[in-house]
Design goal:
Strand order of the largest sheet: 3-2-1-4-5-7-6
Oligomer: single chain
Strand content: 15-25%
CATH class: Alpha Beta
CATH architecture: 3-Layer(aba) Sandwich
Shape: globular
CATH topology: Rossmann fold
Number of domains: 1
């Protein structure tokens, strides 16, 4: 007997039909997802974390946030197939730059092909290797400050990524951290999941930092029940 297919795609949480319908409505009405973005999103299945890319309306949200912030330099922790990277590269404009950090060479190769297809490869620098080490090299080399940081990599390292982001940004910079609700698990202080503890630790560090203002938003949709932290440097 054939095994039944899982009801929830890997790397996503359960989503109700109503949530999916609302996402489809707003995406079709408001989001300009062209063929290059569709190809990049679909190519996520070729990476080490299929279905982990942001949803289309979330990609558009990142683009708007970067534009509102006036960002010309963006740092991204976690590339995968480069779907969110393309949104951010379009946000910074022709003279802007996105530096994206990816652990896996295979994922970086998938992303690079997508960047070329989208016509934004000249705005993107992909650095392959552990993000903590890549970020430290940027700090050591005196990289020009970034205006916007998107943290969407391994969650236990969220506090480390935040610390690096603070060394690589200046006043007014915006920092967005993805996947912080985790199907509600973030509310469990006793959770044994290191991803949950990574989110809780970074939230507490943002709350305690004298130069950061932040909040969090829960989201529901095709990615299930999750959310983002958004912080701004004073």
């Amino acid at each position: 007997m054939d095994e039944a297919e899982p009801s929830v795609p890997v790397n996503r949480y359960e989503a109700s039909d109503a949530w999916l319908a609302v996402d489809r409505y707003f995406t079709s009405t408001l989001v300009g997802e062209d063929s290059a973005l569709v190809v990049a999103r679909d190519s996520g299945v070729e990476t080490t974390m299929p279905n982990a890319e942001v949803a289309a309306n979330q990609g558009a949200f990142l683009e708007l946030l970067a534009q509102i912030a006036g960002a010309r330099r963006v740092l991204e922790f976690g590339t995968l197939a480069g779907y969110s990277t393309i949104w951010l590269a379009r946000a910074v404009g022709e003279q802007g730059q996105v530096v994206t950090l990816e652990l896996e060479p295979h994922n970086a190769a998938v992303a690079e092909a997508n960047f070329h297809a989208a016509g934004v490869s000249h705005r993107i620098e992909t650095i392959v290797g552990p993000a903590t080490e890549s970020a430290e090299r940027l700090i050591h080399d005196g990289a020009e400050p970034f205006d916007f940081v998107f943290i969407d990599a391994d969650k236990p390292n969220n506090p480390t990524y935040l610390a690096a982001a603070l060394k690589l940004t200046r006043s007014g910079a915006v920092i967005v951290i993805d996947n912080v609700v985790r199907n509600g698990a973030v509310a469990d202080a006793a959770s044994a999941d290191p991803r949950v503890q990574g989110v809780r630790a970074v939230a507490e560090e943002i709350a305690a930092h004298p130069d950061l203002d932040g909040t969090a938003l829960q989201t529901v949709g095709e990615k299930g029940w999750d959310g983002v932290i958004i912080a701004r440097r004073r």
